Amino acid sequence: MNRINHVRRTPSFNLRRKRAPVFDKCLRFTRAADLRTANLYPYFKPLTSPQGPEVICQGRRMIMMSSNNYLGLASHPRVQEAAIDAVRRYGTGCAGSRFLNGTLAIHEELEQRLAAFLRKDAALVFPTGFQANLGAISALVGKNEFIFIDKLNHASIVDGCRLSFGQVHRFQHDDLDDLERKLQDTAGRRALVVVDGVFSMEGDIADLPGIVGLGRRYRTGLMVDDAHGLGVLGVSGRGTAEYFALEAAVDVMVGTFSKSLASIGGYIAADTDVIDYLKHHARSLIFSASLPAPAAAAALAAVDILESEPDRRQRLWSNTRYLREGLEALGFDIGKTQTPIIPVLVRDEEKLLRLWRALFDRGIFTSPVLAPAVPAKMALLRMSCMATHTVEYIERVLDAFDEAGKLVGVGP
Predict the structure, then answer these.
(1) In angstroms, rounded to a whole number, what is the distance separating the alpha carbons of residues 81 and 93?
(2) Is 200 a known active-site residue?
């Protein structure tokens, strides 16, 4: 038998072919490099500790003031143990989508638990909250149907609209007159209104009573993304709909486990027929590997703690009031926030980055938000409170703001 000898060729990395024009935009993008050179680059800062009231960043202990870990459950022993037990029972991954081989008993247990907690007939768990919005909107709104969204809705809602075949209409933020004008233009057509329950940068709450009233008048469906409302708003922490006593009026509730529920993943809660339809039409569910069991177990444990320890939510709101009042007393503009999300409006990107840097140097971890995440003239420093912050932490934060604001020329 003849042996065929293959010549092994060693690639030369010095002989790269000329790049295609499609990559020209990458070469032109210098904003991040310029900020790194100026020591003002605020993103992708690696942490080497859990998400608690304090974190370790670049070897330094800092006060975390921009985490969505509202109830402080991300490092709770019961949540951690639940995830560890799930690894032992189910392994680390599902190796398939929910539609085929990736449905575990713990997924269905979590769905039943969420449906009961949210007072809906059924629920469906997705790998992320982003995918929940993509799957729900693109499946529910088809050709010759309409979607109405608030201009400040989360990017996942916007992308879900792009993937649908519906006609998208954006109304001015929290402007029900503008929404009604747009609804009047499409009266009698099949339509879905989609809003954030709590707006993730501004911290204000959607006018759900007004939106529900318009929905009844024009016979539209209503979907609420309550990523930042779950665990925070309502007597029992069920979110924006409970806060307004309008749970039955919301057709589709969407949320995430990555905030109050200390995990990763997303969910949709709705009538049984809606959930069954989404199981068979939501592409981001059917064509994605399913949520790992440890994440599902962590979320389950977090729901239990949310219900059994209401004092956590009380501490969260006490901390929120203390920080808001302290910042306002120092002369900072915190906009119209109504929640533990507290924006410090700077409106000038260079000043914002210098304020962030001054706070970072003083051991305060915050998040500057620039365009396109917010309009260019609304550059802000996004902060959020946790139930596990103490008065001492908040006082240290306020002292740092006093110093940093005077240094940069913002606020005081």
Answers:
(1) 17
(2) yes
Q: Which residues of 31-50 are buried (b: 16+ CB within 10 A; e: fewer)?
A: eeeeeeeeebbbeeeeeeee
337: helix, coil or strand? coil
CATH topology match: 40-69+310-408 vs 77-308: no
What are the respective helix, strand and coil percentages of the chain, to the nearest 5?
40, 15, 40
Residues 186-232: pLDDT tens digits?
Answer: 878 899 999 999 999 999 999 999 999 999 999 999 999 999 999 99
Cα distance between the two ends of the chain: 87
**How crowded is the C-beta side of 329, counted as CA atoms within 13 Å?**
9
pTM of the predicted model as reported, rounded to 2 decimal places: 0.93
In contact, 70 and 316? CB cutoff 8 Å: yes
Q: Which listed CATH number (3.40.50.300, 1.20.120.530, 3.40.640.10, 3.40.50.720) goes with 77-308? A: 3.40.640.10
Mean pLDDT of 47-67: 96
Q: Which of 76, 120, 228, 279 is catalytic?
A: 228
Find the catalytic residue in 67, 156, 200, 367.
200
CATH code at 40-69+310-408: 3.90.1150.10
Q: In terms of residues, how long is the chain?
A: 412
Active site residue 6: no
Instruction: From residue 51, give the alpha-carbon distance in Å to each of 54, 67, 75, 154.
Output: 7, 7, 7, 23
pLDDT over 90 at 302, yes or no: yes
Rounded distance, CA 273 to CA 259, Å? 28
Tokens linked to 129: 């909250």
Q: Which residue has the tokens 């706070």?
A: 359
* Burial grade of 1 (CB within 10 A; 0-12, 13-18, 19 or more): exposed
Domains of the chain, residue spans: 40-69+310-408, 77-308
Helix (H) or strand (E) run with residue 204 in it: none
The per-residue pLDDT for 187 is 79
Q: Is 228 a catalytic residue?
A: yes
Q: Which of the residues 107, 169, 259, 279 is marked catalytic?
A: 259
